[in-house]
Design goal:
- The protein is built from six helices and five strands.
- The chain is α/β, with parallel strands linked by helices.
- It has a five-stranded mixed β-sheet with strand order 2-1-3-4-5, with helices on both faces.
- A hairpin with a 6-residue loop joins strand 4 and strand 5.
- Helix 1 crosses helix 2 and helix 1 runs parallel beside helix 6.
Length: about 160
């Protein structure tokens, strides 16, 4: 795609997300932190994406996660914003605040700072929750520290894969 804002690998995967979710009759909602809206940007590169994307919450700060998505302060205090518990709460909050069928939430440490021994730069957590599902699919990944943009790109690709039916 010559006029795409984002790299071809991201746009091509976003195209699959849109086409396959349209075919499945499914809508999605996003709760993004470290990706800062990149997943939503990728999806909206695709014509017809309005049939799939209900909305996206970019909740970069802890206060936004709490205020916009209802993430409990206790979760952030106990586990941190970059935790399975936090992204689970983000996904649940996004799903409850939308008309979507499936939510994907992302939070991580893109760097260059902010990492530590337990959660180094490149640590990103994801949660996927479908309507009616009790427990989300959740995972923590450690992406190669290829710089801030590289970590965010890898996280965007992973989130898009989670959105495939």
């Amino acid at each position: 795609m010559t006029d795409a804002l984002l790299p071809d690998d991201i746009v091509n995967l976003a195209r699959r997300v849109v086409e396959e979710n349209i075919a499945a009759g499914r809508t999605i909602v996003l709760a993004e932190s470290c990706t800062g809206g990149l997943v939503a940007a990728a999806i909206t590169e695709i014509p017809g994406s309005s049939a799939v994307l209900d909305r996206s919450f970019v909740t970069y700060s802890n206060e936004a996660k709490q205020g916009d998505l209802g993430v409990e302060t206790d979760i952030i205090d106990a586990f941190g914003a970059v935790s399975v518990a936090c992204v689970y709460a983000m996904a649940r909050g996004a799903l409850e605040r939308s008309g979507a069928d499936v939510a994907v939430a992302i939070s991580g440490i893109a760097g260059p700072g902010g990492g530590g021994e337990d959660k180094p730069v490149g640590t990103v957590v994801f949660a996927k929750l479908e309507k009616g599902q009790e427990q989300p699919e959740a995972e923590q990944r450690l992406f190669e520290d290829t710089g801030r943009s590289g970590v965010r790109s890898q996280a965007t690709l992973c989130a898009l894969e989670l959105l495939l039916p």
